[in-house]
Amino acid sequence: MENIEVQNTQCEMKTDLNLLLECLKYQMDSPASQKEALITIYSICQQNSDASDYFREIGGLMFVSDLAKSSVHCIVKEAALFTLAVVMESNVYCQQTLCTSELFEDLIFLLTNKNSSVNLKRMSVYVILVLVSNNKSGQTHIRETGCIGVLLQLFRTTLSISEMNLSDENINQYYQLWSSVCSTLCACVNNPQNEDNQNTCCSVFPHAKDWLQSCIKPEIVRPICSFVGLTVANNSYVQEYFVSVGGLDILAEVLIKLVRNSSRSYSSAKLAVVVTKTLDACIADNSAVGDVLVKYHIVSKLLRLLTSDTLDSGEKISIILTIGHCTEGCEENQYDLLKNNGLPLMIQLLTESQDEEVNKAATFVLQNCKQITEKLSLKINEYSLNLNDAEQLKMDLHIKERNLEDYWKKVKEILHRIELLEKEHDEETVRRQIFVDIPQEAVMQTTSKYHKMNASDQKANTERTHTKMQCSQLNCKSDDLVGTTSANNQSSKNGILKTVNLVDASTRESEQNVTLHSADKLHTGSVQKSHTTNERTACEKKQSVPQASEHLFKQPSLTVQNLKQTQVAETVTFCSDSTNKEISIPITSASPKMTDLRCSGCITVGLPFNSRNFSKILHTCPHQCDRHKVILEAEERYKRGLRKSVICNNSSSEAFKSNYEDFL
């Protein structure tokens, strides 16, 4: 049903256009009828690409073009030109069909003819505007035919600076023509950008500067700013020329006036944004040009404009980008930004705004000011300023540095907190992944080595125990080591020597235990359980065998009371001889006191010397023998291994805690 209606509409449209074209052809003697027919045609083709294309297919486009050139009636010419512009604007094929040098030459004739009315010239400019809009071919034709020169002349002469009473109908017509010329010139240089046309259009910059200097009315400022902004865009030659004729200075002065009035006038704030965009186009990608704005302190004015409540996000982006281009490569403007609290304002916009473009623009400004903040902390007077400015700079700097310090401190605190959180997260991840990172083979090899050493040590201890003459039965859970006594000196010395050998073996076993605990920290608690089971089994089978991992530093409890004095004397004698040999201290009759130069672990025996005070006594001894030094080092390594195991292996923390408390 809808398709039928569309087809009916299309048929009606085509029928109407055919009839209107016939009316134009047969009403040559009736200008009013032709005008009415033309008005009806453009009302049908306006914003209707299909109708415009059909009108071109039936030959109506070329007929209207000839009518605009050949008709002697001004009203017919004006209507024909307007119809051509509407049809070309609706359909690109119609634009390409009429984009010829012949049409541009005909339009030049109409623009330069003294008999042409202002409205006819305006319609001619409108046709040129449509021909060059988004059309590189049209931009080329307008330059090669000299049509752009005619438009520039109209820009200079259409309006008089002294006569700007737009309420006057006659003056208002000329203003409409001048405004149309400005729009057409903008289309000649932009979209796509045409550098040749830009270089041609910059010849009217002095005149545009005079307009801005004499009048800041929106009706004048807006068209000129649009024209200047598009003409200088991405063209360093034109930018420098605009600065050389004083155009940038005039723009800065106009902006200062508008910013001053922006707090009282809404229109002044909006117009100040237009001037700001033009200013930005003049200095973008050309930092040398931006130095001209230093004397006007334009950055402070832009910051003031940025705080206006009447601006939308798009207008704020334009202002921030202009500040960024002003501060890019210009230290004076960067300092002006810092002095006027621009840095906190940029941070505020960056944190509060949800607009991504605003955030990018604010980041651009902050990046520009990174170097100046570093330089200001090292050197104050880096600018070519006079003495008064330098003194003022120092005074202002002292005040602003305090504010900047507080701000940076807050920023650093936030960054520090973030780093701490990230570090804690990374450490937790490492602790969780450590079991995956350590190869299983290394852990199994270490465990296997420990079991072999443990078995050999137990076997050696059993053999030594059978060779002793007398020994007291020990409890596995007690804190005392087995001490061996004998009735004669030779057997006593042999027993003590075996005890010393047992300590050496126990020391080696303790070192192996430290290695095992390091492996246990990276593995599961199964190895530790196996180690505990082995020790418990050995204790049950042979209670007289000391437990090296738990009772390494215990002293024996003597059971034969009548031989106590002999045991003490012989032990002291043996340890003294052994110690003297190790530390090479000659023992002579001249020595003041022999016990002062001996190891406390060697001379302290009996009940006062047990596992609880063993470490304390040895630590306070200034003359430790090598044997007891090794024992103390093994003890420290064992304690460190326990602490690490308790921290890293949460699953076996209770078992380690129990062993650690028993040890202490």
From TrEMBL:
Q: Where are the ARM repeats?
A: 341-368
GO biological process, alphabetically ordered: homologous chromosome pairing at meiosis; meiotic attachment of telomere to nuclear envelope
InterPro entries for the chain: ARM-like, ARM-type_fold, Armadillo, TERB1
Q: Which GO terms describe its molecular function?
A: DNA binding
Q: Which domain of life is it from?
A: Eukaryota
Kindly list any coiled-coil regions of this protein: 373-431
Please tell me whether the keyword Endoplasmic reticulum is annotated for this protein: no
Fetch the Gene3D superfamilies from UniProt: Leucine-rich Repeat Variant
> What keyword terms does UniProt attach to this protein?
Coiled coil, DNA-binding, Homeobox
Q: Which PANTHER family match?
A: TELOMERE REPEATS-BINDING BOUQUET FORMATION PROTEIN 1
What is the name attached to this protein's record? Homeobox protein Hox-D9
Q: Which organism is it from?
A: Platysternon megacephalum
Its organism's taxonomic lineage begins at:
Eukaryota, Metazoa, Chordata, Craniata, Vertebrata
